[in-house]
């Protein structure tokens, strides 16, 4: 078994475009769930409208790339308003139901045959990110010794991590301000906040929009890194993987979602590599599991690991044990 | 708002008649025909209500009398079926809770709502109104809100000292005891600088040692010119600190008056404690109680 390549693949994926996409999506969820207590189960929807906003603008309607980015952000804003206006006055669970349903609706609409002239049906849209790659300063592979990125990946890698860093900076400075204090208070008890004269609905809406914007960034990065959008990329599992990353790192912490996304992708790739090579060299005999089954074991293990984390370290890696202990009172 | 208003307020109450819904010389709250039903149950049905400015008014009544529901209605936390009420001449009907609070009418809760995972001082800072840093874009520019935050913190520290919570400043509010939470909630409400402070059972779950100091704090609210309206079951507290008592039963105001008058009103005692409250249960004849109960049942059957 080639431990070296399994490890270097895992490292590449922990630092590469996948982790960047999930880190951005999880930063958005952190604003929603970690700081404000909003259960958004439809982050995939925010990613999808942004990605399709960009892809369809450029590939279908021939608009410039940057106009497409603006349309993507606009679409995410619209989605946040549509979801928030009816549900944010209700209990938290209603937002959860509305978001997960609308993310699925969006995915089906983008993949529908009727609208395939716009969104390309199940084939999606390609050829919309040329402007982005034209700006690429790298002309050859970027070598990190242990692993290397192609010139295009290196450009995504650079822009992506700059975006993650800026997003973290934004979240950090917002959450240490009085504005962030109102959000954290809403997470604790929104009636108390109301009784002190704060417009809770407005703050929840602002949080939903802000988190949706980070979701839009994640959608752009996902679309750009593979230079295509297809409906299946925006299925609900992307939301739940982003939640996994968030809980792994620690909800309500600035760096929680970033570290969580890196660990999540490291583990996924490492376990995936380990099991597929173990099955292929018959370290795991065929009677126990086939190659294909072996490649799925990683999901089981990551799930079991998440359960163990919730039991033994519910605050995540960055969380504050004292905060969690209060819930037990 | 000073000591004088509260003193004149109390004197003015002397001439107010002891009738439910009695008009007051200087009311801060005036309400009319406020009703709220839950299914078939009429929780609140108040014909007329006036709360005198600058005094402590107690709202008492047996469990289920509609006291907390009335609180919720007045502060915008619940919507009435009908009714109209005003605060300082400002119509409040249909106004959301946060706007009611901004007008200077702030409430606390029966089950204290401290923000457990925020520190005590952060709980206090949240109470300050008109914070520039609470606006999204301004919050990104600390120089614009830091000075105000500094002022708010100083005011918060002063209040924490007054409520003897200064030693807990950096602790999570969730680690406080029940009584300390009541104190924190009261102090936090004061950060809003309300004209009227409404306390929902401030003594519930508070140990006797802390009760005395809580009583002192409630009195001090009045003495600095604020109006206090509170719901309470603790009769000692009601007798001790209130200037005026409103008695509710089954959603209606059944009596009003100064505490000493109310406490001796047999109708109130019956409504509040039941007709048998003075009798020793062991001396009651089981047969006669049974007869009484079955008579009541018969009567109800006839009414249906």
UniProtKB/TrEMBL annotation, chain A:
Cellular component terms per the entry's GO annotation: plasma membrane
Pfam families: BPD_transp_2
Keyword set, alphabetical order: Cell membrane, Membrane, Transmembrane, Transmembrane helix
Intracellular or extracellular location(s): Cell membrane
Membrane topology: Multi-pass membrane protein
Single annotated GO MF: branched-chain amino acid transmembrane transporter activity
UniProt protein name: Branched-chain amino acid ABC transporter permease
Species whose genome carries this gene: Aeromicrobium phragmitis
Lineage: Bacteria, Bacillati, Actinomycetota, Actinomycetes, Propionibacteriales
TrEMBL record, chain B:
Region annotated Disordered, chain positions: 1-26
Top-level lineage group: Bacteria
Gene Ontology CC: plasma membrane
GO molecular function: ATP binding; ATP hydrolysis activity
Signal peptide: none
Keyword ATP-binding appears in the UniProt entry: yes
InterPro entries (UniProt xref): AAA+_ATPase, ABC_AA/LPS_Transport, ABC_transporter-like_ATP-bd, ABC_transporter-like_CS, BCA_ABC_TP_C, P-loop_NTPase
Keyword set, alphabetical order: ATP-binding, Nucleotide-binding, Transport
Domain ABC transporter: 29-275
Entry-linked PANTHER family: CONSERVED COMPONENT OF ABC TRANSPORTER FOR NATURAL AMINO ACIDS, CONSERVED COMPONENT OF ABC TRANSPORTER FOR NATURAL AMINO ACIDS-RELATED
Protein name: ABC transporter ATP-binding protein
Organism field: Aeromicrobium phragmitis
